[in-house]
């Protein structure tokens, strides 16, 4: 059945509310700019949470802007740098579904169109308001006949389009939820990567903290195989906020605790520890999903390097307790999860890898015994899989193999790679 994806723009496709950003550009020399910024933001939130009609909010915001065409050019440049990270890395999805993606927004085409066109979104699939200008290029209003300028505008627009098949809505605001409430779409996904409006999230079919999550749930083409928001990153002890923010910004699911509580042991995927923390061998042995540990200091005699190696857990620490480690260690952890980099690990063969486009990256960690690479490549050959690039590093205990393969392959390959004798861990990175 045909699928159509209705995607919001402000605080969804981009990290920000565009009219709020436009105000900061157009009013930067205004003596009362701070008070006006707050007024515009309040009007935005009131409409998004369903506390104020969209038309009333839009009219008041446009009146406060004092903006012109030159300000819009500056806004577009800013918005191009503010595309939500999980949208930015999933251009492949938009390329493959160019006919199926509609941008439907209460924002304005003048700034939406130049931002979304590089993502293979068709111009005719962009539905938004349009500004009215005077002869000097100053914004004096908007086209009031456009249904998207009215309360319930997205519902009115969609009713007029008579779309067939399954329709999915993705957005952060009340106007996006109204599509589900009207019965016009199959599912509404509340998008919370940038802002979570609880009144909207509570009514959603699914809360999606990233676009990766949406693609994963719906089994659609995506840049990474497993959403980072589903990877539990446990932070233990007196860890600086700077370190926590590195991992939070990357999109991992963060829990900050004073101790390694037993209830998290089975599900933790990443572990960041303050310099005085210890992990008992028994707990470590039961942490079967754990992929990487970061230790802000010297981890010797506090975390078993030998057990980490045997379990395929990449450990990053800083034996010299350099002050840089508050940022350096979590960056290394994220680099391993995102790219497979083990560079400067304390227990793993060191690999620093290039990003390969239009390929899948497969990570195979195994005991360092003869013949493993031959078995891996026999499986690829048996399934006629094209290897784009391959990397291998070993130490006396383990081998760390990265294989980038062409995008099309039989999923049976993954099962066979996992079953190779002496395999410790295997995962598809992207």
UniProtKB/TrEMBL annotation:
<dbReference type="GO" id="GO:0006564">
    <property type="term" value="P:L-serine biosynthetic process"/>
</dbReference>
<feature type="coiled-coil region">
    <location>
        <begin position="55"/>
        <end position="82"/>
    </location>
</feature>
<dbReference type="GO" id="GO:0005737">
    <property type="term" value="C:cytoplasm"/>
</dbReference>
<dbReference type="InterPro" id="IPR050582">
    <property type="entry name" value="HAD-like_SerB"/>
</dbReference>
<dbReference type="Pfam" id="PF12710">
    <property type="entry name" value="HAD"/>
</dbReference>
<protein>
    <recommendedName>
        <fullName>phosphoserine phosphatase</fullName>
        <ecNumber>3.1.3.3</ecNumber>
    </recommendedName>
</protein>
<dbReference type="GO" id="GO:0000287">
    <property type="term" value="F:magnesium ion binding"/>
</dbReference>
<keyword id="KW-0028">Amino-acid biosynthesis</keyword>
<dbReference type="InterPro" id="IPR045865">
    <property type="entry name" value="ACT-like_dom_sf"/>
</dbReference>
<dbReference type="GO" id="GO:0036424">
    <property type="term" value="F:L-phosphoserine phosphatase activity"/>
</dbReference>
<keyword id="KW-0175">Coiled coil</keyword>
<dbReference type="Pfam" id="PF22629">
    <property type="entry name" value="ACT_AHAS_ss"/>
</dbReference>
<keyword id="KW-0479">Metal-binding</keyword>
<dbReference type="InterPro" id="IPR023214">
    <property type="entry name" value="HAD_sf"/>
</dbReference>
<comment type="pathway">
    <text>Amino-acid biosynthesis; L-serine biosynthesis; L-serine from 3-phospho-D-glycerate: step 3/3.</text>
</comment>
<keyword id="KW-0378">Hydrolase</keyword>
<dbReference type="InterPro" id="IPR036412">
    <property type="entry name" value="HAD-like_sf"/>
</dbReference>
<dbReference type="InterPro" id="IPR002912">
    <property type="entry name" value="ACT_dom"/>
</dbReference>
<dbReference type="InterPro" id="IPR054480">
    <property type="entry name" value="AHAS_small-like_ACT"/>
</dbReference>
<feature type="domain" description="ACT">
    <location>
        <begin position="361"/>
        <end position="430"/>
    </location>
</feature>
<keyword id="KW-0718">Serine biosynthesis</keyword>
<keyword id="KW-0460">Magnesium</keyword>
């Amino acid at each position: 059945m045909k699928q159509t994806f209705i995607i919001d723009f402000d605080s969804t496709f981009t990290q920000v509310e565009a009219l709020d950003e436009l105000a900061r550009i157009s009013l930067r020399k205004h003596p009362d700019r701070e008070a006006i910024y707050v007024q515009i933001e309040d009007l935005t939130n009131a409409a998004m949470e369903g506390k104020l009609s969209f038309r009333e909010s839009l009219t008041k915001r446009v009146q406060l802007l004092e903006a012109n065409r030159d300000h819009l050019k500056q806004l577009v440049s800013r918005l191009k740098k503010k595309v939500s990270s999980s949208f930015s890395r999933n251009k492949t999805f938009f390329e493959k579904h160019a006919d199926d993606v509609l941008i439907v927004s209460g924002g304005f085409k003048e700034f939406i169109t130049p931002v979304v066109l590089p993502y293979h979104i068709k111009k005719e699939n962009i539905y938004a308001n349009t500004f009215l200008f005077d002869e000097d290029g100053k914004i004096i209003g908007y086209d009031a006949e456009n249904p998207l300028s009215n309360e319930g505008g997205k519902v009115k627009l969609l009713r007029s389009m008579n779309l067939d098949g399954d329709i999915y809505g993705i957005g952060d605001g009340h106007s996006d939820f109204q599509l589900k409430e009207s019965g016009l779409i199959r599912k509404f996904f509340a998008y919370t990567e940038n802002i979570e409006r609880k009144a909207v999230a509570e009514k959603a079919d699914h809360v999606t903290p990233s676009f990766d999550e949406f693609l994963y749930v719906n089994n659609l083409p995506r840049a990474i195989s497993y959403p980072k928001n589903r990877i539990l990153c446990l932070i233990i002890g007196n860890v600086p906020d700077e370190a926590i923010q590195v991992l939070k910004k990357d999109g991992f699911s963060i829990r900050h605790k004073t101790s390694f509580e037993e209830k998290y042991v089975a599900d933790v995927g990443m572990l960041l520890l303050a310099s005085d923390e210890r992990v008992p061998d028994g707990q470590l042995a039961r942490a079967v999903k754990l992929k990487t540990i970061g230790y802000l200091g010297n981890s010797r005699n506090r975390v078993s390097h030998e057990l980490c190696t045997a379990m395929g857990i990449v450990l990053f620490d800083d034996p010299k307790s350099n002050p840089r480690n508050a940022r350096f260690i979590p960056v290394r952890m994220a680099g391993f999860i995102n790219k497979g980099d083990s560079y400067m690990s304390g227990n793993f063969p060191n690999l620093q890898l290039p990003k390969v486009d239009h390929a899948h990256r497969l990570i195979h960690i195994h005991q360092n015994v003869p013949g493993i690479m031959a078995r891996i490549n026999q499986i690829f050959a048996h399934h006629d899989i094209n290897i784009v690039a391959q990397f291998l590093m070993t130490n006396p205990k383990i081998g760390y193999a990265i294989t980038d393969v062409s995008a099309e392959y039989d999923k049976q390959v993954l099962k066979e790679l996992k079953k190779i004798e002496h395999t410790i861990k295997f995962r598809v990175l992207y």
